[in-house]
Amino acid sequence: MSYNPYAYASGNNGAPEVHDRATKVSGGAVPPPAQPFQGNPIQPQFQNQYAQQQPQAQGQQAFGFQDPRNTMAFQIGQSAFSNFIGQENFNQFQQTVSKATGDSSTLSHYFQVSTSYVLLKLKQILIPFVNKKNWQRIPDNGPSSDSAGSAANSGPTFQFLPPKDDVNCPDLYIPIMGLVTYILIWNTQQGLAGSFNPENLYYKLSSILAFMGLDLFILKLGLYLLVNTTSPVTSLTELTCFVGYKFVPLTLALFVPGKPLYLPLMVKSYLFVAFGTFLLRSVKFNLFSGPSDDMSHFPELTVKKCNYFLFLYGFVWQTILMWLMG
Amino acid sequence: MIFGLGRLFYVILLLINAVAVLSEERFLRRIGLGRSSNEQPVFGQEGNTTKSKVIQLIGAIQTLLRIPLIGINILVIGYELLLG
């Protein structure tokens, strides 16, 4: 994506402002930035440039000096491109690109976390048995102007609340932090044991990425074959989130002293079981609650097969993987 | 057990090669995964059961990837021959 995903100009409402994450939208949820961009080429040119000059006149320099320039440069590039190709083709091109890159939402959605969210999520991963309330994510009804603008686009819709408002939503911050922490701690332990080699950092990273790639492949294949659903849980970004959560129990398993033999075994088996439960519950309850859910009751066979697969995957395969990686 | 991204790439390449050489008429029909056995009255052939999805997946991999696989295989073979 060549534009700044954190800022967009909305000429839809007739109130030209540059939206950014710094502005507080009254709905409480940040509307997805991808959709107004798809509506922009339809609008006449002057409205876009009017929208760009307004924030400079209003003196909203708090967004940073670059944002209106970036958006204006993008508008110019976009208008040149669409004049060259044709506006409908440009829309289709944008939709094809976004479908090919496979994002069900912009990546910035998964990084909107807060401290309390991180702590609650860590508690959920390590002790999933305490939380008896429902594990469903809260759908997000965007403001009506967005739905009017996006009705013409059949692009990927995105309707769940971002992580800072909803504990059940997966995020990408914890997996990435967990990955880096795990690699650093593993190498620190190797260093304390006297066999540290700076190349090992890269070997470990490559090995972990290979395991994650394999994991993603198996999970995506299994979910595709078993379940016919359009829920955003099965998109590749979200599966990366779920696969990446296992660094949290792995990092904790590294801290266990290895001397009395039963201790690491007990701690590791508890951590793996807890992680399996967490994974199973969070994926299962969100699989069938997609945004456009006409049938309230899926055929029993798919539900059963899905449960079996997720159970097998969540417990057996993850245990094998984590044993190999740890 | 450390296996890196290179090994994973080889593994996936071999698996996709294996799927691409499954012959439709000689093998898949015998075991019931042939295309003619996948009868859906729905226009557009939307598969909902696992079996029809598997058939679609195999068909799609074969149609799309047979030719690029030739190129990738040549590259990998050349790499292995020249650089060990």
TrEMBL record, chain A:
Residues 1-43 are annotated as: Disordered. GO terms for biological process: endoplasmic reticulum to Golgi vesicle-mediated transport; protein transport. This is Protein YIF1. Its main location: endoplasmic reticulum. The chain crosses the membrane at residues 172-189, 201-227, 233-257, 269-288, 308-325. It is found in: Endoplasmic reticulum membrane; Golgi apparatus membrane. It comes from the Eukaryota. The keyword Repeat does not apply. It is a multi-pass membrane protein. Has a role in transport between endoplasmic reticulum and Golgi. The keyword Nucleotidyltransferase does not apply. Keywords: Endoplasmic reticulum, Golgi apparatus, Membrane, Protein transport, Transmembrane, Transmembrane helix, Transport. Belongs to the YIF1 family. One of its GO terms (cellular component) is endoplasmic reticulum-Golgi intermediate compartment.
TrEMBL record, chain B:
Pfam families: Yos1. GO terms for cellular component: COPII-coated ER to Golgi transport vesicle; endoplasmic reticulum membrane; Golgi membrane. This is Yos1-like protein. The chain crosses the membrane at residues 6-23, 63-82. Keywords: Membrane, Protein transport, Transmembrane, Transmembrane helix, Transport. It comes from Naumovozyma castellii. The gene is NCAS0E03410. It is found in: Membrane. The keyword Magnesium does not apply. Its main location: membrane. GO terms for biological process: endoplasmic reticulum to Golgi vesicle-mediated transport; protein transport. InterPro entries: Yos1. Belongs to the YOS1 family.
